[in-house]
Every structure is written in C-alpha cells, then in structure tokens.
Write a structure and sequence with these properties.
Elements lengths: L5 E8 L7 H14 L4 E5 L7 H4 L8 E3 L2 E3 L1 E4 L19 E5 L15 H14 L5 E7 L6 H13 L4 H6 L4 E9 L3 H17 L3 E12 L6 E2 L6 H9 L3 E8 H9 L12 H17 L4 H5 L5 H21 L1
Parallel strand pairs: 1-7, 1-8, 2-6, 2-7, 8-9, 9-11
Antiparallel strand pairs: 3-4, 5-6, 9-10
Helix pairs in contact: 1-11, 3-4, 6-7
Main location: cytoplasm
Pfam families: ParA (PF10609)
Subcellular location: Cytoplasm
C-alpha cells in the first residue's frame, strides 16, 4: 500500500515564503533522529526545492527498485558497535529525503508546471516512494494554500488516518497533524492565520506554531538579541486557539553548517580563474576541517536544545492523541 512502513506523518506549513520553513523541517528531522527516530523528509515544494541543498546532497540521483523510488540517504541508523562511542545515550535514527530536485537533469532547471501536473507529481511522491520502516515522515510544503496543499491534503486524508488507534490496528499511516512556521512580523502571522483556516477546512490537526527568526543568537556567547520584532507568533497562536511551540532565534552556526554542505559543483564556470582557485581552496579547507555527518555537526548548534524541546512536545502530543483515541 502507499506509504507502507511509515508510522506517522507531520506536515510543515507556512503562509508566507522566506520564513525558514525548510530549515525548520530539517532541524525537526535532525532532532527526531537524535532521539532515536527513523525520519524521512518529503519535499513537495516543486518549483523551489531546497532540501537537497540544505542536506548537501544536491548532486544525488534517485534510484528505482521493484518497490518504488528509493529516497536519498542523509545518514544511516547508528550501528550498535558505535553506541559506546556516541555522546548520545539514545542510538541515532536514520534520515532520508525525497525531492523533485533529485529528478532534475540540472539543478538550475526551472520547474514550469501547471496545476494538474503538480497534483500528479505530489500523488506520485506519495504512492511511488518506498520509505521502508519510518517513524516520522515530515512533509515540507511550499508557502500558501496552492495546488500542492490541496493535493497533499486530499491524498493524505484518503491514504492516512487521523485516528492513531485505527492507524495502528490496520497498519495505516497516522496523519499526526501540521506544524506551522512564521516569523514575528505581522505580515507573516496574517498569512499563517489563513493556513490555520486551511487546516480547519481540510480537517488536519494543528500541532503547534513555531516563531522562527525571533531574535539573533551571538555565535560566541549564545546571547539572543531581538533585531526584529518578537512575540507576534505567540499572540497569533493565542488568538487563533492553537498551541504555541516556541521561538527560534537566528542561529549563525546553523547557517554556517548549511553553507559547509556546499562542497561539489558550486563554482561558477564563468567566474575568473583566481576566484575559482580561492573558492576551491575554501571548500577544500571546509572538507578537511570537519568531515562529520550533518547530524553530528548539528550537535554544535545553539538551536539544537530548542528543537529537542519541540520534538519532545510533538512526541507527547502524538502519544497523548494515541492514548485518547
């Protein structure tokens, strides 16, 4: 059946572009992985797929198997032999991702599709990708409430169950709900209100709101300065009657981590030779300096404890929902 092996599905939504929804999706996935969960990321932002770039796998290609497309592996499950050496008491879970970016011949190709083709692609992602045993599938969506959202909502409500008891008893994926991402500014929170109404109309539970870019974290001491407004997401969540998960300051360490993933194929062929040499030397130094897995680098980021709190809260909500149904 579609999504065979996937236990729980979480949508990551935003009413407005540029609020850091994909980076929030990745950090939720990394935090869940560090808590021992096997995680998948499905990127259905068809015209602007960013997950391949964020995980440093932009040049990877999808492979076909008799059971369907095989997602790209970001990191494997931590083997038992490595548990004693791990700084974490909980063995690390695997992380895999799927995106239309892996299907393009060139990463600079534009995806110029009308609604019906977008709908068909989203449904194909849901039916033709073999995830295997996956505790959580995070679906990174484009901003707004467009064709992709309608398609994913209709398809998931047909394929998955919003009842944990039904999902468990019949081996049906459980649609746990949606996490909404906003920034503190009113222009972003007003669009998230529309997203909450979309969830209400499509009967998708809202797990909570994350206020992203709420301040700036100093890379030296970790002190947070509010360079933008603060608290808009919490006020909006209170007014709309949905849970507020918390705030995420801008973390320059996470930004540097993502930039360090840009290792291969990032030099412009039209740039002059001296710039190419400088960029190549810089990238080579990044490789030599730290060749750890992305998830291990993420342990050094200031935002990790924040997202650990988010994921623990989400796990509690999902388990509580399961016990009540």
């Amino acid at each position: 059946m579609p999504l065979d092996g996937v236990k729980k599905i979480v949508l990551v939504l935003s009413g407005k572009g540029g609020v850091g929804k994909s980076s929030v999706t990745l950090q939720l996935a990394l935090a869940l992985s560090l808590q021992g969960k096997s995680v998948g990321i499905l990127d259905i932002d068809l015209t602007g797929p960013s997950i391949p770039r964020l995980v440093g796998k932009e040049n990877e290609k999808i492979t076909q198997s008799p059971r369907g497309w095989i997602p790209v592996e970001v990191h494997p499950t931590e083997l038992a032999a490595n548990q004693e050496e791990s700084s974490s008491a909980t063995p690390r879970g695997s992380l895999r991702c799927m995106s239309v970016g892996f299907l393009l011949r060139d990463r600079g190709d534009a995806v110029i599709w009308r609604g019906p083709k977008k709908t068909a692609m989203v449904r194909q992602f849901l039916t033709d990708v073999y995830w295997g045993e996956t505790d959580y599938l995070l679906i990174d969506t484009p901003p707004g409430t467009s064709d992709e959202h309608i398609s994913i909502g209709e398809s998931l409500l047909t394929m998955a169950s919003t009842s944990s008891t039904t999902a468990t008893s019949q081996n049906i994926p459980h649609l746990a709900g949606a996490v909404l991402v906003t920034t503190p500014q009113a222009v972003a929170t007003s669009d998230v209100r529309k997203e909450i109404n979309f969830c209400a109309k499509t009967r998708i539970p809202v797990l909570g709101v994350i206020e992203n870019m709420s301040g700036y974290t100093c890379p030296c001491c970790g002190e947070v300065s509010n360079i933008f407004s603060r608290g808009g997401g919490e006020v909006m969540a209170t007014e709309m009657g949905v849970p507020f998960l918390g705030r995420v300051p801008i973390d320059i360490k996470f930004g540097q981590l993502v930039e360090s993933q840009k290792i291969e194929g990032d030099i412009d062929s039209d740039a002059d030779e001296e710039m190419e040499v400088d960029q190549a030397a810089t990238q080579q130094s990044l490789v030599e300096e730290d060749n750890r897995l992305l998830v291990d680098k993420y342990r050094d980021c200031w935002s990790l404890p924040i997202f650990e709190g988010f994921t623990k809260s989400l796990l509690e909500k999902v388990e509580s929902s399961a016990s009540q149904t």
